[in-house]
């Protein structure tokens, strides 16, 4: 359900670091927002170094945009950005000053996965149970 | 007015399939949200295969992010994501389990096109009429 | 705090034009939304020309997506998109008809930078003062 996009200059992170960061974001999201890790997507969008500016000058921020379903509590979402930002600095070595994490959201009914409208926060178990039944039934 | 961004691993779709998907998303959006097709943008953001993770492991999801103006009904937006997801599976052959469609929104007054603030949903005809007058007048 | 992403076909803008546009967006954002320019990020996401469609056909729009904290006034946000769109046409020479600017937003508490949750609009001075103290203290 959620999607995290990590945007940065090309070559900022090597493959091993990207894999470690993707795994850690997945673990954090799953724990904080109660979503099975199989539903967590992490993308890395690498831009040409000449395409990244801060303060109007070429720069090297690490920008992580996440998308979640509307309805998680403010405390939950703040915990999410805090833990993701901490993980980014710990795993990549990039200082916190250059790490920006932003979570956007839309109502669950504005999103679809596996052919079914997403459940509102708190309704995941029923939704997941139906997925399992559907899969079993189709075999 | 709307923008759809299809994100996936590089090489997932060939040119013909991308063109067919762009055309179909355009047709669906125009019909469901009452926007002339000339205002519908579809972008494909192809990432290195090593930059796409699901469940902390390299994966091949097809993620479609749309942006629309706030104020369309929930039913309309749910119809939109359902039809776009169906079209994605039908045209690309990627199973529904790997297709995720998410629609975000902002107030129309937070967006501008052709030098004019966008109209709220339902106000398109007056806005478009003014566009035509403006174009005619400038010739 | 804010992030602007300019999306277009590869090769639409040369390096000098990108630098000028990044600088101007930074100046505008800083003036309109009262954020020090050191916190304004501008990214250019260049797509293969075959990956950009308008009306279901290959096209060359210039699409600028901005993200700001929720709570700025509507008037402020409308001023922002108007000035950014004007600057894009003035600096790039791309006619207004092909320029689309969209501002999205999330609550400040859904975002973190420099290891600290962002301040709500209007609370920047206290947040920035604390940053300075923190930096001085750590030296």
From TrEMBL, chains A, B, C:
Domain of life: Bacteria
All copies of domain Tautomerase cis-CaaD-like, residue ranges: 1-125
Protein name: Tautomerase
Organism: Mycolicibacterium smegmatis (strain ATCC 700084 / mc(2)155) (Mycobacterium smegmatis)
């Amino acid at each position: 359900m959620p999607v995290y996009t990590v945007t940065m200059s090309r070559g900022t992170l090597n493959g091993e670091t990207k894999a470690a960061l993707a795994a850690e974001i997945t673990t954090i999201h799953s724990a904080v927002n109660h979503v099975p890790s199989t539903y967590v997507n992490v993308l890395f969008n690498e831009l040409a170094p000449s395409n990244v500016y801060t303060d109007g000058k070429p720069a090297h921020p690490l920008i992580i945009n996440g998308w979640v379903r509307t309805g998680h509590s403010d405390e939950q979402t703040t915990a999410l950005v805090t833990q993701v930002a901490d993980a980014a600095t710990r795993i990549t070595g990039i200082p916190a000053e250059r790490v920006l994490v932003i979570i956007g959201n839309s109502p669950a009914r504005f999103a679809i996965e596996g052919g079914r409208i997403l459940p509102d926060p708190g309704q995941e178990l029923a939704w997941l149970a139906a997925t399992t039944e559907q899969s079993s039934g189709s075999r």
